[in-house]
Write a structure and sequence with these properties.
CATH architecture: 3-Layer(aba) Sandwich
Structural class: alpha/beta
CATH topology: Rossmann fold
Number of domains: 1
Shape: globular
InterPro entries: AAA+_ATPase, ABC_ATPase_HisP-typ, ABC_transporter-like_ATP-bd, ABC_transporter-like_CS, MetN_ABC_transporter-like, P-loop_NTPase
GO molecular function: ABC-type amino acid transporter activity; ATP binding; ATP hydrolysis activity
Subcellular location: Cell membrane
CATH class: Alpha Beta
Number of helices: 9
Radius of gyration: 18 Å
Helix content: 25-40%
Organism: Anaerobium acetethylicum
Keywords: Amino-acid transport, ATP-binding, Cell membrane, Membrane, Nucleotide-binding, Transport
Largest sheet: 6 strands, mixed
Oligomer: single chain
């Protein structure tokens, strides 16, 4: 059974249809990378998957059941399907450690001691344990994003969504964040990643989805998708972004 199954998903803002009849499924342990031009609907799709946007039509199944149904159920769902944003979304008035403890204290109702131990465990995992007492303003962009990943991991999610996790970073910081995500992929964490890093998508994904004008124009295993795409738009897009 698919861990997430999207069926006939559409999303419109007024008369502007951003997503049209989206269908895909992701199984446990899969890493799905979503690529496409700006305005193709990638981030809106991710925001629908995390219920930050309400779909206009269609359904999203998680573990076989339809998601939604009141704030309590939505919060329970978001604890299982975490999200890492391109702009980090850290609380600037909290330390790194406090940022990573907040969710497990408030949502998972874990004790202060357990939340702290868990936060330190995941901060170590992303190489940010030396900075537990720092505030976000004292960190580089790459460090902030690694903290944001650690914070998402403290919820011990079944699926992790990444919305262009490197787009706000200076080029020299991109690698440190992508390496953390690659390690998570190697450990078998189920992930859906919106990215413009084509070589990363080719190397890390088990399935790649190309979106164009609000629809899935093509999807497939990366070894076929990047070598011999079928859709002319996919070919054109990849020729602009892949040097080989």
């Amino acid at each position: 059974m698919a861990i997430i199954h999207v069926q006939h998903l559409s999303k419109a803002f007024g008369t502007h249809e951003v997503l049209r009849d989206i269908d895909f499924r992701i199984d446990k342990g899969e890493v799905v990378c979503i690529i496409g031009s700006s305005g193709s609907g990638k981030s809106t799709l991710l925001r629908c998957l995390n219920l930050l946007e309400t779909p206009t039509d269609g359904i999203i199944l998680f573990g076989g059941g339809e998601i939604g149904g009141g704030e309590k159920k939505i919060n329970e769902y978001r604890a299982k399907v975490g999200m890492v944003f391109q702009s980090f979304n850290l609380f600037n008035n909290m330390t790194v450690l406090e940022n990573c403890m907040a969710g497990s204290r408030k949502v998972l109702k874990k004790s202060k001691e357990e939340s702290k131990a868990n936060a330190i465990k995941y901060l170590k995992k992303v190489g940010m344990a030396p900075y537990i007492n720092a505030k976000p303003a004292q960190l580089s962009g790459g460090q902030k994003q690694r903290v944001a990943i650690a914070r998402a991991l403290t919820m011990e999610p079944e699926v992790l969504l990444f919305d262009e996790p490197t787009s706000a970073l200076d080029p020299e910081m991109v690698g440190e964040v992508l390496n953390v995500i690659k390690e998570l992929a190697e450990e078998g964490l189920t992930m859906i990643i919106v990215t413009h890093e084509m070589s990363f998508a080719r190397d890390v994904s088990t399935k790649t989805i190309f979106m164009d004008q609000g629809v899935i124009a093509e999807d497939g295993a990366p070894e076929k998708f990047f070598v011999s795409p079928k859709n002319p738009r996919t070919k054109e897009f990849l020729s602009r972004f892949m040097s080989a």
